[in-house]
């Protein structure tokens, strides 16, 4: 483990990214445990912060952490110093608090325990996945791999544009995970771009008329995707807690 950390993290210049990644996961798990304990009305756990009756959401604290961590990180000149690691960790905790209430920011209302609140968990899972890919050595759009190929600059630029285009098409087809992961692994973006769109996606609404062969095939294939969606919802409920409506159905 020490050899891996020294070679793949320190020597690769990924100390700040590693600290951010660990702090982000820890921050997200902590805040989710906290809100679930508050939701369960556990007496020994501290409750919501409500000075003067005003409920202060943890996204506010997250913004403060991000400001402190971000500015400190910019002020530290040595990227491998302990202060750089601390700044990255503080920024990671702040980002976890902010993204955990992403749905609140997006809808501009408290939808934390509603079905719409699942958006926050999805965004957090995506952030963890993409950061994990970066730690494993994958670069967004393959950036960093073309510095030594000056003669093939236009070929490399064409690859970047094509990869970005395939990723965008994948997202428009409702294949968000393939599209975002495709920014790091080009084949996944290509796979998502050339497969059928999901029925409710912007691509299907624009290019698959109702009753068309493609829409029929997409609807049939969606039945298979439902199994993956069920697993995703189960995992989200396990980590972050089920929405209020779903809890009521179980009772």
Quick take:
This protein is mainly α and 251 residues long.
Could you explain the architecture of this structure?
It is flat, with a radius of gyration of 21 Å. The protein has a domain at 1-48 and 57-137. The model has no long low-confidence stretch (mean pLDDT 86). It contains twelve helices and no strands. It is mostly helical. Helix content is 68%, strand content 0%.
Helix proportion range: 55-70%
Strand content: under 5%
Categorize the overall geometry: flat
Alpha-carbon distance between the two ends:
46 Å
**Poorly predicted runs of 5 or more residues:** none
Give me the secondary-structure topology.
Elements: H1 2-10, H2 15-39, H3 58-75, H4 82-99, H5 102-107, H6 118-135, H7 153-172, H8 176-181, H9 186-194, H10 202-207, H11 213-240, H12 244-250
Helix pairs in contact: 2-4, 2-6, 3-4, 7-9
List keywords for this structure.
single chain, mainly alpha, 12 helices
